[in-house]
Amino acid sequence: MPYVNIKITREGATAEQKRQLIEGATRLLVEVLGKNPATTVVVIDEVDTDNWGIGGVPVTERRRSEGQPPK
Amino acid sequence: MPYVNIKITREGATAEQKRQLIEGATRLLVEVLGKNPATTVVVIDEVDTDNWGIGGVPVTERRRSEGQPPK
Amino acid sequence: MPYVNIKITREGATAEQKRQLIEGATRLLVEVLGKNPATTVVVIDEVDTDNWGIGGVPVTERRRSEGQPPK
Amino acid sequence: MPYVNIKITREGATAEQKRQLIEGATRLLVEVLGKNPATTVVVIDEVDTDNWGIGGVPVTERRRSEGQPPK
Amino acid sequence: MPYVNIKITREGATAEQKRQLIEGATRLLVEVLGKNPATTVVVIDEVDTDNWGIGGVPVTERRRSEGQPPK
Amino acid sequence: MPYVNIKITREGATAEQKRQLIEGATRLLVEVLGKNPATTVVVIDEVDTDNWGIGGVPVTERRRSEGQPPK
Known about the structure:
6 copies of one chain form a homohexamer.
Chain A: E1 3-9, H1 15-33, E2 41-47, E3 52-54, E4 57-58, H2 59-65
Parallel strand pairs in A: 1-2
Antiparallel strand pairs in A: 3-4
Family (chains A, B, C, D, E, F): Belongs to the 4-oxalocrotonate tautomerase family.
GO molecular function, one term (chains A, B, C, D, E, F): isomerase activity
InterPro entries (chains A, B, C, D, E, F): 4-OT (IPR018191), 4-OT-like_dom (IPR004370), Tautomerase/MIF_sf (IPR014347)
C-alpha cells in the first residue's frame, strides 16, 4: 500500500529508466518493510526546468550557466 | 479550506468526468465535515502510464499484457 | 489505482468521519471513472491550524478572531 | 533543505514570473528560518483549468461565467 | 535535485529501516539517472491507519478483520 | 486559488515564524501573479529529522556528525 512519488526535472528520462525507477522503488519497500508489491504505487512527476528552482535559480538558468543546452 | 488532490493515470478522462470528480469531492467534504465549498480546492493530476507503476511494473506494460491499446 | 490525498486542518475529525471520507472518495472514483476500488488509495493528512494559512493568516488566528476556541 | 511546492492554474505564467516565484520562495525560507538556499528546492506545478476546482466548479467554467476567455 | 516522497502507514517503521529507505531511494536515483546524491531529498510521511484507506476501508479496520492488533 | 506546500524538518519553527512563512508566501503570489489572497492556501508540513534524508543520510545523523544536538 505504500505510495512513492518521485519528482525529477524533465530532462530526457527514457521509458526504460522510468521502468527501472518504478521497479527499484517497489523492490526497496518490499525488502526494507516487507510491503506487498501488488498494492505499492509509484508515481513519477517530470517537471519543466523553468518550474524547478534550487538556490533560488531556475534549473534552466543553471544549465545555461553550466554551458549545457536545455533538453 | 480543504485541499483534495486526485492523481489518476492519463487515460482519457473527459472534461465532464473531471467536473464530476470536482463536484463530488467538494460535496463529500461539505456533507461529512461541514466544510465551506467556496474555499475547498480540488486538483486533479493526470499522469502518463509510463510514469505510474503498480506491482513494480509501469501501467503501460500492464495494459499491453492485458491486451489493451495504450490510450 | 487512483491516489486521493485529502488535506484538512486538525480540528477534531472523528475516526468515523474519516472512514466516510475514505469510503466516499473511493466510491466517487468507481462511479465516475470505473476505477478498481481494491487498488484505490485514499490518504488523509490532518494539519495543525498554526500550519495552515488562508488569506495570509494562520487558521489559529482566524478561529480566534471568529471567537472560536482552538480545537 | 526545505521543499516548496507551488501549485497554480496553467494561465500563462511567464518564465520570468516563475523565476520570481522561485527566487522569492527561497529568500522567504532564508529570511524566516535561516535555511541554506543551496539546498532549498522550489517546484511549480501548473494545472489545467479543467483539472482545478473551487466551490465544486472547474476553473474553466468559472472563467467562462466571469466572461474571461480561457488562456 | 530529485525529490522523493515515500508515504507509508504508521506501523512501527524503525529509525534504521527509514535510514535504509533514504539510502536506497537516493542510490536508485544515482544509479538510474546519474543524479547528484548531495541534492537528492527523500521525505518519509508516516500516516495513521485511520487516515489511510484502500478498497474504501481504513487500514485500521482491515487490520482488525485480518486479526492483527493495531500497532 | 494557489496552493503552496512548504515542507521543513521539525526543528523548532515557532508559531510566529510559521505565520511569517504563510504571510510571505501569500504576498509572493499576490505580487508576482496578482492572485487573490482570500483563496490562497499555504500548508506547512514539519517532518521528523529521522524521516528526512539528503545525500542518502537522515538529517538526524547529519546533525549528530555536525555536533548539533537533535531539537
